[in-house]
Batch of 3 targets.
Target 1
Amino acid sequence: MKKKFECLGHGVASVICKRRFHKWLRVYFNDHLQSLFINAILPCNIHANLYPNDLLKASSEIAMSSARQQAAESTNAENSPLLVAENITYVKRGKAILSDVSLQLCSREIITLIGPNGAGKTSLIRILLGLSEASSGRVQRQPDLRLGYVPQRIVVPEVMPIRVYDFLNVAGLYDAPQCLQMLEEVNCDYLLYSAMQDLSGGEMQRVLLARALLKKPQLLVLDEPASGMDIIGQQALYETIRHIRDKHDCGILMVSHDLHLVMAATDRVICLNAHICCTGHPDDVTEHPEYIKLFGDAIDGLALYSHNHDHEHDLSGNIVESEHCHSCEHHKGQK
């Protein structure tokens, strides 16, 4: 009888020890590591003979191993492409829109997709974003990839009284300071409480860009971001896009027809005409026979405009006077 009670007491002590030990694990480790620790290190008949120093040493080793594994996974994620498209073919109403298109999008890289009208640029963007399904091929994205999208244009009804802040916060997820911060990044913080209907083309594109940035995207997709802007506005916008890439370490995919500016604003060019005609660094692509075949007439006689005036312009194209523009001809004409 005494031996029986001793065994019973030993069992109760074992249960109590298990409970205390599990509680201790929950405090210092997450559930995944707790399960790993119990299954890999501890015997199933854990009891009061466990030594705290041995437990601490073993748990530290497992924690360090888990940290190394997470660091390795993080490094691999940073080095791996954000998005990979392989052999994309898209057929619509019996017509082949895209044929065997493959590409990779990586962090901190600005890629510009160019091509004539009807080349399949918009269809490819929709497939990459998951808005359309390819007829064949596959698109692989990093797990939980955050995407930001800026459409070519939106139309706000005149009868809809909506401010920029309301538009940015339409989902109710952001407060005014957060919206203001994103507007500051795209140099139009003064528009926070302006009516959407009163925005110029350049201001509208920057507001759309700010809305996409609120999602903290890892990949930012811009469909004709400089559409409707004059050359000064385009230059300013492309400079803002480069700043966004550098600050947020995100990948950027742009669709553009602005051949005279896009080459200076991108790291890599993809020339598309139902299939990828050529791709590479802008300097290499401009000399490629396929590029010349597609855009030869458009670029023939085209001279790049170099804006060397020592003054600045706002988003509406108005001259913003600075300390060193008093000698400019535009300033003399205003006197």
Target 2
Amino acid sequence: MGLSFDHIGLVHPNGHRALKQVSLRLAAGEQVAVIGPSGAGKTSLLRVAGTSVRPSEGRVELLGANPWQLGAGGLRRLRARIGMVHQTPPIPPRLRVVTAVLAGRLGTWSAGRALASLLYPADIVGARDVLARFDLADRLFERCDRLSGGQLQRVGIARALYQRPELLLADEPVSALDPVLADAAVGQLVAQAQATGATLVASLHAVDLALKWFPRIVGMREGQVVFDRPAREVSPAMLHELYAAEGAVLPTQGGASLALEAADAVETVDATDAAAIFGAGRSNVVPLAKPATVVRPGCR
């Protein structure tokens, strides 16, 4: 089992209940996208999965272990097997890109090797290779505070891929990227998971990216799982209900949005359809059963 949540609840110190009775099971090697409106609990779900926070109730199993029954050493070793891509990468601004990427394996290196790598990077070739997948090989020795937000976000993804974790978590990993780069970056995350057999869980703002790249979709709202379905079974009606509180628009990559219309009969949108519609040179519009008006704000 890659990940198992059994009736997980999370209450923050201020009394806000972020997660309510969440139960999920992911087999080793599965790729799952978590979608939902702002405040749905997606980030909280990933923080529990990454052992950043302990749930207030319920049982967690990660990579065959209950993290909260382990000693300090066991928990440290478990965390070294988990990779996290943050929406805003926690990378010191004066750090060089090569050092930021190599930090992905600090959990498996000795203290001596880690310190030595600060003076002379331990694996320049490995760091360059993973950065090349994101068109950043030429930034290898650049300081991170000289990168754009989108470049820094790609460095954060590269660091997680260099780690080669068994459980790969990504929290809004492409929010600062344009549509073409975002699509390519999510593709790299999925390709890494498939190549290494890692379990991948990604929270995504853009519904089109979730449908295109992930075979399983979990919809969340108000801290609860609303649906958990194969992508091919996620219907426009389900998406309409999930995002109803945010208005009659569906979030897609690049800022394009689609007015949702209620329909008596709807067609299922599967990953294959999404891949064809959202490929290069096509507009980022989610197809529904009835024609709808597309609202296109200015490019960001």
Target 3
Amino acid sequence: MSNASTFSDARVPTEAELRARSNLGRQLWRFVVLNFKMIVMVTKGHH
């Protein structure tokens, strides 16, 4: 299987998805949420 056939089946992002990906505020918010989830996971792991 070549890369060309794999990539041709890939979904193309919509305009809204591209705007959301380039929005710095949204990126910052997602970063904060991800870090919070990691903190919760680490604290639950330490009994």
